[in-house]
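Quick one from the shared queue. A colleague (R.T.) flagged Flagella basal body P-ring formation protein FlgA as missing a structural entry in our internal table.

Convert sequence to structure tokens.
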Amino acid sequence: MKRPFLLLIGLAAPATAAPFQNIAALQNRVIAALGAGIGEPGGPSAPIDTRLKLAACPSSVTVDPPAMGAVALRCPAVGWKIRVPLVRFAGAPNIASAAAPKADMIVRKGDPVDLVATSSGFSVSVGAVAQEDGAQGSRIRVKTDGGERRPQGQILFAEVIEQGRVRLPGFN
């Protein structure tokens, strides 16, 4: 009795969708949208961290216009957003505390601070949390404690006065 001869050829497993977004493709998309490479003025200041694990975007990733020294990449279908810091152009104005040396930082990200608004005849202060490092005289983002009406708090820009104290601009 003859037995059927069965020859199995190594077939590749069917391709499955990648579980994570291709970071190199995101980097190329940012460079193409900005027209400047990594480290060049107007381009990304550093490569996007390859350890970042984002859900694969089923549609195209949108690149927002540059704002506040960074560009935002979004995937509306999945709901993620990342910000990529940019290299400033020569002569561009300073944003936040970018130009201040790290050693002069008197407020650190996560520090509790008093947010003060003063004018002739009154002074108001509320508790807040610094959202970035800041040297004296620099402007940083702070998040207010919120309170009963706004339990999540509000993000505002404030000028660093001294350690643990920031001032709301526009009040003298």
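The chain has two domains: 23-85, 102-167.
The two ends are 103 Å apart (CA to CA).
Added to the table.
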